[in-house]
Amino acid sequence: MTDNDFGNIEFVRNLRSKYIRVRILAYGLKVSLPERATESEALKFLDSKRKSILTKQKNLQIKKENHALELNFDTSIQTLTFIVRVQAMKRKDIFMALKDGTLTIEFPARGNLQSETAQKQCWNGINYFLRKEAKRLLPDRTKQLAGKFGFQYADVKIQSSKTRWGSCSRARSINLSMFLMLLPSHLVDYVILHELCHTKEMNHSVKFWAWMDRVTESKSKLLRAELKQFNMPT
Prior knowledge:
Layout: E1 2-3, E2 7-13, E3 21-25, E4 28-33, H1 39-48, H2 50-66, E5 76-78, E6 83-89, E7 95-99, E8 102-108, H3 116-149, E9 155-159, E10 166-168, E11 173-177, H4 185-197, H5 206-215, H6 220-227
Parallel strand pairs: 2-4, 6-8, 9-11
Antiparallel strand pairs: 1-2, 3-4, 5-6, 7-8, 10-11
């Protein structure tokens, strides 16, 4: 459903939860409902916390806007497998090529790179290569880490999510955002291990974090804090 203030509200049922829990997103909410709670009860709860939620939501929006990646001719974006560089060239259209670890974007010298249309076209191209590289690397890396620590999962899917780095369903299907390719390799492993641990514990209980410490040499808290310093591109 949609709320005029909160934006899109997604309700999910969590049979293990005892309380209504709210995940605040920049432009929406994800509400976890206990077994016997109703959406009407959840809406009353949201209304009682409306002012606080809107304040946190506004701060998230500002944070996302401040971390938007704007491309320019001095841009040098390092991804997991390639560097993005933009060059001004004597040409009429945008040309992109990935070779020897560098994604070169040739942009018309007389064009306006800062325009919304140009930024969108360039990022569409970057996203194409991010997805391609993510599909090439992330499923194999998941398989390696699962084998190393004895996890079992159903499959791995690469998505374009900009709200979470990864997720794991009750059927042990793991979803990974292609934007993981913008993280350092040790944080990519952290996210993958996080989802693999969810194949053992479908929550963030003490048992779950015990699993995380087991597979990260007791560095889960440090890695979690480091991951929070990174933002997905808006």
